[in-house]
Request: fold
Amino acid sequence: MLLGSEAFTVRKIPVLLILLLALAGCSEASLKDDLLNLEGVISVDEIIQTGDSKPFAEKYIVTFEQYIDWNNPDLGTFTQRVEIGFRGYDNVNVIYVDGYYLLDERFALNDEHEISRMYDGNYIRVEYRYFSKSAPKGLSNKGTELWQYLTDENASKDFHNIITQLKEILSGRWVFTGASKGGQATNVFAYYFPDDADAYVSYVAPFCDGIDDSRAFEAIYNTIGNERYGEEQAKKYRDLMLDFQVEVFKNRDYLQPLFTKSEDKYADYPLKNASRDFEEFIVDTVFGVWQYDQNFASFDEVMKITPRLDDSSTQNVRENQKFLDALVRIIRAENKGFDDDDYQEAIFPYTVHAVTENGNYGLRLKPLRDELAKHGITLEFTEETEKNYLALYNFNQAQLDAFKFNPDTRNKMLEWTETNTSNVIMIYGDSDPWYFMRLPETDNENIHIFTSSKDSHGIEINSIEDDMKAEIKDLLDTWLLEEKSESENALSSSSGGCNSGMPLFALGLAFILRKKK
Reply:
């Protein structure tokens, strides 16, 4: 209610002016204007889409200001990048997290998640805290300061703040999704904020038992592939990968210098050297083959090249050059730049988060060690040094002293599988090494788990068996397409580019004042 002189002033406002204000309130505004008005948005930069297909009406990189530690706002803030492909104010909103950094060179491309395609949705992709341009000032890969705030809880609160702000202008239903590290983040987010999304869809989400989870490598040497290929054929593939490693280490004098750096590159790390670096690289090559393309035919072709001798003297290297060249090609093809220094620097936050909260696989190389012993070859990796290798080979001594594993997230998630009330879908490929390091099965009726034998770590809804695909689609349709309740509609604040509250108020006020004349 307006009192005194304020009431008198309003009564003097011309009716025509109020009507003009009402019409101005309904003028078309772009999403960019709406985004810039959100609390905590620092900047909105337009992306010009390239190519024949331009699926989004508008596309932007939005920079949000976030707290370094949500439990201690006085510590300060950092900025976090969010890519938004916009189709409509009322469309389904798909927020995708892969747990890493955004690739600037992909912003202009038609690059979106399958669920946003399925539902003609808005596509929202978040750069994970501490990666690339979404990191606090002063953060260093060589230091220990600020890394203690790279936590699952803080990351979840980042996402919550982004969604809370975007809900001010986007009124459609919400899907939170991610794959691998992003799948793990999806499940964790459902734990912390079960009401933020209408559906949580995690793909190939690992949950390791600490930083030395043996289950992946036990599977790689004993059981992986049995469901997909049958026990007999899967064993042939496992044996092929073991034979490949043996041949590599027979010829390591030639191969190792091609894939490692000078010894001074390892000076800061307690147990890392060129030999151990090479061994890790080859072991991870096999892990990666199972994780992704399972391109066993290429390895089989290489292994059939003859002649090939047991030692690697200069003469024999020349005689086996064709075989060695083939080994080099296939190793490089399977790694595709993962040994690049810039890439390793870029994913350093993954290593910190794995060692402190999310866990990682431990190496279990006894089968390889036993096979090499038949040829008189010894690995630098021992049963002792292969444990906790991720920290020992990537951290300096100060970081080893500072970064310790905290099992709280793991324990919370084990409880969550029994108590979750959100709409959750988990999707796995059972020939993926990460599949063996996952949350346990649950009878919780709100968690729907789908495991396919058709794929591994790159699995998608569109690639799995038809019956599972149909069931997933039915669940998503129920959660995303059913009509909203009256209470949900009342809470909707979407304006569709027009702030409807002010124009209606102005028109009503004009009518009342006119009647009083």
